[in-house]
What we know:
- With 114 residues, the chain is of the alpha+beta class.
- Helices cover 23% and strands 28% of the residues.
- The relative contact order is 0.24.
Amino acid sequence: MATEFSPSSVTKSSLSPQRQRLIALMQRLNFGRIEQLQIQDGEPVFDPLPRVIRKTRFGGDNGPHAMTRSVDFALKGQVREFIAQLDVLGNVTILTLEVKHGLPFDMEHEEVIA
Length: 114
């Protein structure tokens, strides 16, 4: 189900459990990509599980993002924009979701052109 956002409701806890799970996955990944992520009615689906590709940065921090230790927090602009895209797309397979610093960076999905 799509979630409407107002400035007072843009926290992790204001999201559906599926969206919270996706944010936690991005934070644990920190750098890499998520492939073949199914979206139904704007909600991430984890059955089947998406493919997760971790990027290792030599000389860099490869552990989970520091926010994984936080129970609740305000969502950054990139996450709010990504969630808004889920609402617009509705039912789609995200082919690739690039994650940098635990945040969505860009994504690719198929689009039907009439």
